[in-house]
Amino acid sequence: MTPSVLRLFFWAALAAVLVLSLAPVPAGHMVFSWQDKLEHALAFLALGVLGGLAWPARIGRLTAGLLAYGALIELAQSMTAHRMGDPWDWLANALGVAAAVALRGLCRRR
Questions:
Q1: Staple 54 to which of 6, 44, 60, 99, CB 3.0 to 4.6 Å?
Q2: Are 41 and 65 in contact (CB under 8 A)?
Q3: What is the pLDDT of residues 49-75, one digit of tens each?
Q4: Environment class of 61 (CB within 10 Å of its CB; exposed 0-12, middle 13-18, buried 19+)
Q5: pTM summary value
Q6: Measured distance CA(86)–CA(78) in Å, rounded
């Protein structure tokens, strides 16, 4: 896949994460208590992997940008009536980004 296509997927995923993060959570959506944290980590893992594939020479900037993006999402959630910002959600975002960086490191070693 070309970098241009990967970048398009990354920007689309970034927008999807924002929309899903600000949308009201449907009743009965939560199956287990820490599901929200897992969803945050997986979303940011996916963003980190896509971004790493799209911009392999800019991992540091990508990581910093995704961490800032996660913080901005939490801030935006705190300004809605139906969501709330949570520092633990940001930590889950950061763990997802860290997992993407670690996965990239493992793949490069092979």
A1: 6
A2: no
A3: 999 999 999 999 999 999 999 999 999
A4: exposed
A5: 0.90
A6: 8
